[in-house]
Amino acid sequence: xxxxxxxxxxxxxxASRSPTIPVSDLLDILKLISRVEPIDLLLDRTATTITSxxxxxxxxxxxxxxxxxxxxxxxxxxxxxxxxxxxxxHTYSMDRKRRDLLDEHRIxxxxxxxxxxxxGLRCNEDMDYLIDTSMLSAPRxxxxxxxxxxxxxxxxxxxxxxWIGWIEVDYTNDGRVLPRTAVHRIQLLADLVGIxxxxxxxxxxxxxxxxxxxxxxxxxVHDIGNMVNPLIYYLDKMEKSxxxxxxxxxxxxxxxxxxxxxxxxVDNVRKMSEAKSSQYSEKDRYxxxxxxxxxxxxxxxxxxxxxxVVSFDCPEGECVVGADELLHDLFMNLLNNAVKxxxxxxxxxxxxxxxxxxxxxxxxxxxxxxxPDDRKGAVFSRxxxxxxxxxGTGMGLSIVNLLVDRYSGVIGVTDRIPGDxxxxxxxxxxxxxxxxxxxxxxxNGVGALGAGTTSSDES
Length: 459
What we know:
By secondary structure, this protein is of the alpha+beta class. About 40% of the residues lie in helices and about 20% in strands. It folds into two domains: about 1-215, Beta-Lactamase; about 285-450, Heat Shock Protein 90 (2-Layer Sandwich).
């Protein structure tokens, strides 16, 4: 294949036709993968990146339909409307595609270039892929010229190497064969889409299982964990390449940090899942004051560009409860929300511990956008809807609720200013004192929160 860099005479010309994948486009694609967005949205974004970055005029992306066992066109780009409509009606069996893609056509591990002078005329149904039929019988002018019957296929495979789809390039803008570097970079995108397709299937399967057996912890531990690891791998690979300028390197570093943070959360939830599957009888001593001081410090490190002001009132001495290391994650979830849901220049948070009758009551109040009354009852639900423009999975408060229950506590949510949700939200959590856990059995709800007198100490 001359156009992919065979021979020194093509090096200079190829260099001028070898644009890179824009970092912003790649980050957008990785973001869609990490959020498990609808697969058609990801396919369209990937197709747009390929056509705009690599001089591709038209392409088709096919995905395996597991019910029928056939490959179906899910994204058609750059064809006239009539051609596009006809192409979307096609289906392809595995046997048919393997007959198309012979070893003699392979130009890379998962890339095949089928040239007109190798394959001859295509099947009748493939004539729908021809934009200009007048050139059908025209001879190829030179090895580097793209013929209307040429096509390049970039396979998408699962982790076992099974075919789950492909990207097929059918025309180029300049009428020339794609350069070698462009072929390699399009294959990279095909690999990423393959990861997304497999993860999407696992996600859908896990959601079905969750509905039937409330297995959403398995979804987090197994499926989302499998999504994050490939992202970290590819981001880390880009970071080590040393080819980015300072601005793009900074963006990449942030994306890598977010991915690693997601992996950290998955690891913690895995611990919770393992503990939940066994009896949780022995608890360690945890001082609420010490835990909250560490969380407040960690919060400011997590949002270095935000102005965060935290007031902290608590009694003198220890405020000991029975818990485990996930108590830190419980409070970090609430503190993170207090910053994320506050659009003001300064994020103000009030944290307090109250000494109640057999319980310690922790209050975390923010000055953010608040929670309307009609949504307060659902905030602890799994996959609760997030306000527009706020990132996350919608699972944070459901995990908080599970952990509070795990520690035999209760949690409630109210307006920081009673009757005006727009002034911020207040979360109140009551935990049994380490030697007074029998009190938890007497609690019937939020009404038990905050009983008793309080002394204060600002930290």
